[in-house]
Amino acid sequence: MGAYTFGIRGRVFISFLFLTELVTVSLLGILSIISLLCIILYDGLTKPNTPGSLRDPADTSIFPEKWLDIPLSFGLIMSGFAGHAVFPSIYHDMQNQKEYKKMVNYSYLMVAVIYMTVAVSGYIMFGSKTMEEITQNILTVPEYNQLLNRFAVYLVALNPIAKYGLTLNPVVLTWQTYIQSKFICILLTTITMVLLVWLLPNFDRVISLLGAFFSFFISGIFPLLCHIKLFRHTMSRWELALNLVLLTVASLMAITGTIKSFF
Question: Whole-model pTM above 0.90?
């Protein structure tokens, strides 16, 4: 939805902003996510009966109905924690770089809390009928405040505007090592993104593939390999063992999640 709402011209425009300006624009995305969370909680708490109520939970189960679908969740979960490609650019443009580590820790803590709240609330409200996006569910409940829910959908559509330029800034910089024109680099990146959205419409499969293949490699496997390569001689045995275990687990989850995204 966000891809069609934003459009190619909007994506090209947002990509020309400097990183410091992109960070300011990204505040819009943070506000939209927090607002969406508040709307979901409001809907669930104000509706007395299922479906769509936090006060009267829907039918849920502790274990998944289809165990073979578990690998699909690996990428879906990981995709939300894969901002590592942007970290060097953010660190470089920070006014106080000493606060970088604290900023990353607090950011991931906030992301985890928001994700867990939305996931748990959505499952309690709709159970096994939870759709790919929670906004699809809340639009099917006529007892909700429809004006408020429409606003939630618009927030979801607005979110890519805040994220697009910041997330793809490293991609554009990489293109510029081969192509001197920044405009052409941005245009090529934007056209590629639009084509991917058009050719791969299944939202959950696309996000799962991105999370399982790219996010696991960028955010898990590659950093672990670098850490082992650089510091293995100074690590204790248990630290090295822990890194190897994490590397093995991340690799297995990446492989199974990627395979499940295609089949």
Answer: no
